[in-house]
Design brief:
Rossmann fold; globular; transport; single chain; alpha/beta; 4-stranded parallel β-sheet; 6 helices; two-stranded antiparallel sheet
């Protein structure tokens, strides 16, 4: 029974700046169904609460396998990111054009923290 739910997870979702989301939409990840989208474009006017609401929605949907979020946006909702412990959808923090990976503190990267915990570092 559990494999049925994993089989239905066939979408990527993204929370990112305009360039990141546009690039991923051009790559074909966009999906709109019954007024639900699998992407959120974040600019300077979007509040952290809106980002967190989208994060909660995407992590609870049963059709999303992977959620991509720009690292600088993940920092705005770090408590929610740190509290998320589910395997699916997998949440990956990605750099953006204006905020490359070096701008983010590697010690706060959720994937790196999980790998370090796994290896006992």
């Amino acid at each position: 029974m559990a494999t049925t739910s994993f089989k239905d997870r066939n979408l990527l979702a993204v929370i990112g700046d305009e360039d990141t989301v546009t690039g991923l939409l051009l790559a074909g990840i966009g999906h709109v169904d019954k007024q639900k989208r699998n992407f959120l474009v974040v600019d300077s006017k979007v509040q952290a609460s809106t980002i967190e609401d989208a994060f909660e929605e995407y992590t609870q949907r049963k059709d999303i396998a992977i959620l991509l979020i720009n690292q600088h946006l993940a920092e705005k909702i770090r408590p929610a990111m740190d509290n998320y412990q589910q395997a699916f959808p997998a949440v990956l923090e990605i750099p953006s054009k204006d905020h490359p990976y070096g701008d983010a503190n590697p010690s706060k990267d959720s994937v790196l923290k999980r790998v370090q915990k796994l290896f006992g570092d």
